[in-house]
Specification:
2 domains; globular; single chain; Fic-like fold
Length: 392
């Protein structure tokens, strides 16, 4: 396959492909790594800063009282942010209300999309922890979970596309970007999989993650859900390569905040081979996101420690109240009827415990109802909510 060069950098090629009554030009990215090799001297400083920030964040995993609770909540925050980039209006509160079996304040299909994202991420993590490699098969399995229910269910869940897709515009002929034609998707993804499995001592892992993300987005192998799976790929690759011991870095907030620059830089890679500008942007995102996540984690630990002391001072009721409080750390919005079986204590005991937590100012009843009451752990939810305002 003959690829085009821009300056000295191979940037890919365009192929003509039929769509309806017109012929369109579809972009086919060259294999990774870039040719000639990326010049890392210009990003060395930010690469070191990103690695240091990520190391500090990863170091907190041993200090967190219950890391599983932190991951549980952070995956949900990323699910909301990543889905917002794709146009949903769901918040973390909407998702938690939905998970409690009540109607959220936004269209149900928006929240279903977010819930599916949580399922896709959880599936990927579970499979990798059991020793399954990061592979095309795993990517397809995650995609199947992502689109298994709701409005994406008709978009070939778990299958690479068999028709042409595009980004922007009403058809490929007036689109902002047209990915490879469907008959080349398997070949392009096969090359990406080989890159994911190669030992590349010349390329730091963060650089490999940055390259893989762009390549996946350029191939756009699915009819729907490419952006969300592409963002998950970053976290999973860093875990697979041992840069993170746990999945605690998510770049969706950074990409959401800087989405105009994000899309522009993806385009510059495709049209100019400007990988260096993309790398600087990506590594800055890792540095800032890891630093912010570490700060949030410390605030969570301080909050949990403060509230635990207040609960322990209750005396005899403290044991059952602490059980309910632990569930609130996992799901900061909960109802009595759903919490009781999860915690393993009776509904009246849950209700009494929540009354104690209300008097301590730790939770607030949010419905104003006498039945099917729901309680929110507002100080904790406020930390999780930072940056999750829907895009308008």
């Amino acid at each position: 396959m003959d690829f085009v060069t821009k300056g000295s950098r191979v940037v890919g090629r365009y192929v003509e492909t039929p769509y309806g009554t017109e012929t369109v030009r579809a972009y086919v990215p060259p294999p990774l790594p870039p040719d000639p090799p990326i010049r890392l001297d210009g990003v060395q400083q930010v690469l070191e800063q990103a690695n240091q920030a990520l190391g500090r964040l990863d170091g907190l995993t041993g200090a967190f009282p219950d890391l599983a609770l932190y991951i549980y909540s952070w995956v949900r925050k990323d699910a909301v942010l990543s889905s917002q980039i794709e146009g949903t209006q769901s918040s973390i509160s909407d998702l938690l209300v939905f998970e409690n079996g009540d109607a959220p304040g936004v269209p149900v299909h928006d929240v279903q999309d977010v819930s599916n994202y949580v399922a896709a991420m959880s599936h990927g993590l579970m499979r990798m922890r059991s020793g399954f490699p990061l592979s095309l098969r795993l990517i397809r399995e995650m995609h199947e979970a992502l689109l298994s229910r709701g409005r994406g269910a008709q978009q070939q869940p778990g299958e690479f596309r068999r028709s042409q897709n595009w980004i922007g515009g009403s058809r490929p002929g007036n689109a902002t970007y047209v990915p490879p034609p469907p008959e080349l998707v398997d070949e392009c993804m096969g090359r990406l999989e080989r890159f994911l499995h190669e030992e590349r001592p010349d390329l730091p892992v963060l650089v490999q993650a940055a390259l893989a993300h762009v390549q996946f987005e350029s191939i756009h192998p699915f009819l729907d859900g490419n952006g969300r799976i592409g963002r998950l790929l970053i976290t999973l690759l860093l875990c697979a390569r041992g840069v993170m011991t746990e999945p605690i870095l998510y770049l969706s907030l950074y990409f959401k905040t800087h989405r105009a620059a994000y899309y522009e830089l993806l385009d510059r890679v495709r049209t100019r081979g400007d990988w260096e500008s993309w790398l600087h942007f990506f590594l800055t995102g890792v540095k800032e996101t890891a630093t912010e996540a570490a700060h949030a984690a410390r605030r969570m630990m301080a909050l949990f420690g403060q509230h635990r002391k207040q609960i322990e001072a209750l005396g005899r009721p403290a044991a059952s109240v602490l059980l309910v409080y632990r569930q609130l750390q996992k799901t900061p919005i909960l109802s009595i009827v759903n919490a009781a079986p999860k915690i393993g204590i009776s509904a009246p005991t849950v209700a009494k415990s929540l009354d104690h937590l209300s008097r301590l100012g730790i939770v607030r009843e949010m419905t104003g109802k006498q039945r099917r009451r729901m309680f929110v752990y507002e100080p904790y939810l406020a930390i999780l909510n930072e940056g999750t305002e829907p895009i308008r």
